[in-house]
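Might I ask for a little of your time on a matter of protein folding? Here, with my thanks, is the record as I have it:
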Amino acid sequence: MTDLVIERNGPVTTFIRTRSAARNAMNPEGAQALCDALLAFDADETASVGVLWGAGGAFCAGFDLKVAATAAEGTVAGGALDIPDGDANWPRGPMGPTRLMLSKPVIAAIAGPAVAGGMEIALWCDLRVMEEDAYMGVYCRRWGVPLIDGGTVRLPRLVGQGRALDLILTGRKVEADEALRIGLADRVVPKGASREAAEALAHEIARFPQGCMRSDRASAYAQWDFDLNGALRNEWRTSSAFALSEGAAGAARFAAGKGRGGDFGSI
């Protein structure tokens, strides 16, 4: 059983992990299913924004240590997952999609724990919407399980090296209010409202001209690989064509009276 349900509402696709008896802890089958589902979403020209949510009040409690404890040697995460040299033919990450670079945004809707590998999945997402009693943390610190789904890379880039090392070295609990304050969360919403809020945010993003939005997103991710001049050159090469293909049409809508005074309601 992969314990994954996919629901579609127009341009927004919601991926629901339903392994709630295990607090949505990941197993190899679930990791593969989530990775495959997100790749299919990225290839679907009618889909624009994804939402990842865990049913039953838990986003993801990390990799299932009961599965790991009984796995054969070398198969703890479900197979050979070594990253080869070069940029092609990478296997999935132990938690599933954490090595993917999709062309479309995905929002994490976080209820309850997003800890250990579950935190790494949340970090992989573009945005994080947390319920007020949700929390994150490198809880795997207690068991000698390392961060191997991008946590040591994405966390410092998101919150800075000093704060990241505090969380990585101590494994302490990070509640929603602190997560918002340090930039680990983007929105904090009432208990039980993370999915609704994340889907509403997804629909807002889906309203915008998608080529322009995706190219700006791609440039923001790619700039880490360049010095300043290289990043500016890459930004131009990535996005400038959309100034004509989408920007000109948008300028015409503005000239006709849309979106005046910063109004996002009528664009």
